[in-house]
Amino acid sequence: MKKAVIVLSGGLDSTTCMGIAKEQGYELYPMTFHYGQRHDREIEQAKKIASYFNVKEHRLVDIQFLNQIGGSALTDESIDVPTEGVHEGEIPSTYVPARNMIFLSLASAYAEVIGAEAIYIGVSAVDFSGYPDCRPEFIQSMEATVNLATKQGATGSLMKIATPLIDLTKKETIEEGLRLEVPYDLTTSCYNGGAKACGKCESCLLRIKGFKEAGSKDPIEYEISIDW
Questions:
Q1: Which domains does the chain have, with CATH numbers?
Q2: Which residue in 35, 127, 163, 217 could disulfide with 170, CB within 3.0 to 4.6 Å?
């Protein structure tokens, strides 16, 4: 059976990727990173999601050294998580320097070890936060680099970086996930990582907007009242 590594954050997008990869006939090998983020909630939810999908193996990788580098509201507690949303043309303080490049490098090493032909990552170039490592140009460049840098690529078994959400809005991603019966009740998106989502950070606002536009109520709980 063909294999795929899924970069699984415990969030809505990566969980949707799990559903898509499963539908496309892949045996699932999710990989979750503890990168020194503010909270462990997304890691705990990723474990639950992996269990739901009955995956072959779920790798938890500790790269907490990223909080020593800092430079992001997600890894440096001296930087406040913004609640005013993102202004067009700005890269927000929640951008973690080189995060997706590091994730994909490690995922490609794991993929080579297990003989996987694809790596799925839930980036979007439409409804995204202005992160440079969510752009198609980066993904294309990274895929080329992975195939130049690995034995698998050098011997002709090319590895694909799959980005099924790259051209989808959050609404369209959610619609696809609902079609696939993805367990959105197990996912977390809030940057603050509470038992209930804050409903105020940029990630929460984008998620709420997506569910509203999809005509569906988000199954997770929020600290604030939301008119669905």
A1: 3-182 (3.40.50.620)
A2: 127
